[in-house]
Automatic annotation (TrEMBL):
The keyword Hydrolase applies. The keyword Cell wall biogenesis/degradation applies. SMART domains: PbH1 (SM00710). It is found in: Secreted, Cell wall. PANTHER family: PTHR31375. Belongs to the glycosyl hydrolase 28 family. This is Polygalacturonase.
C-alpha cells in the first residue's frame, strides 16, 4: 500500500499523485481501516489494485474529486473474511472519474462474514472505458455458490448520477447472497453506454431496492 490510514481520526489527504503500474499486485493507493472522519480529495491515483479501499470499522469517510486509473476502482471491502464481523458506515464517494480501470464503484464481501456495511453513496461518478463500472459482490474470491452461509448485511446503498462507458458486457453487477443481505439499494439517474456502440446490460441477483429517473441499463431485480 502507498498510504495506509489505520486507527485514526480527523485525517485529510489532499492533492496526492500516486503512480504504480497497472499490473503491480496489491498496490492500493490509499487504504483506510478502523478509522473515522477521513477525507481523501483532489488527487490522482493510478495503481495495480484499489485506488482507494475502505475496510472494516471505518465510518464517516469521504472520497471527493479523485481521478482513478489504472486500478481496481474505489472499493468498500473486502469485508467478512474468515467469518469476521465487519462494520462500515457513512461512506460518501463523489466526483470521481474512473479511466481504464478494472472496476469502478465496488462493494465486496466474503461469504460467511458477519456485521454490516450501510449508508454508502456513490454520487456524480464518471466512467471512461471501465471493465466493470458498478459492482456489489458478496462472493468475493470464492465464486462457488453456497446457499445460506450468511453474509455481511448491506443496506442503504445509493448510486446517483453515474455516467460513462464500459468495456465488457455487464455494466452493473449486483451479486448478492440469498439471506436478504442486500436491502435498500437506491439507483437514481444512471447512463452507462458501450464504448464500441454495443448494448449495455446489467446482472442482478437477490438485491432489493428501487430505481428512479433515467436508468440504463435497466436493473431487473429493483423496482
Amino acid at each position: 500500500m502507498h498510504i495506509a490510514v489505520s486507527q485514526s481520526s480527523k485525517v485529510h489527504l489532499t492533492q496526492l499523485t500516486i503512480t504504480a503500474p497497472g499490473d503491480s499486485p496489491n498496490t492500493d493507493g490509499v487504504h483506510i481501516s478502523q478509522s473515522e472522519n477521513v477525507h481523501v480529495s483532489r488527487s490522482t491515483i493510478g495503481t495495480g489494485d484499489d485506488c482507494v479501499s475502505i475496510s472494516s470499522r471505518s465510518r464517516f469517510v469521504t472520497v471527493d474529486g479523485i481521478v482513478c486509473g489504472p486500478g481496481h476502482g474505489v472499493s468498500v471491502g473486502s469485508l467478512g473474511r474468515n467469518g469476521a464481523t465487519a462494520s462500515v458506515e457513512y461512506i460518501d464517494v463523489k466526483n470521481v472519474h474512473f479511466i481504464n480501470t478494472t472496476n469502478g464503484a465496488r462493494i465486496k464481501t466474503w461469504q460467511g462474514g458477519k456485521g454490516y456495511a450501510k449508508s454508502i453513496s456513490f454520487t456524480d461518478i464518471k466512467f471512461t472505458n471501465v471493465d466493470h463500472p458498478v459492482v456489489i459482490n458478496q462472493f468475493y474470491v470464492d465464486h462457488h455458490h453456497v446457499p445460506n452461509m450468511g453474509a455481511v448485511a448491506l443496506s442503504n446503498i445509493t448510486y446517483k448520477n453515474l455516467r460513462g462507458t464500459w468495456k465488457h458486457k455487464t455494466a452493473v453487477d449486483f451479486n448478492c447472497g440469498e439471506s436478504g443481505s442486500c436491502t435498500n439499494i437506491h439507483v437514481n439517474s444512471v447512463a452507462i453506454t458501450a464504448a464500441d456502440g454495443g448494448r449495455t446490460v446489467s446482472r442482478c441477483q437477490n438485491a432489493q431496492g428501487d430505481t428512479s429517473g433515467y436508468v440504463y441499463p435497466k436493473i431487473p431485480c429493483l423496482k
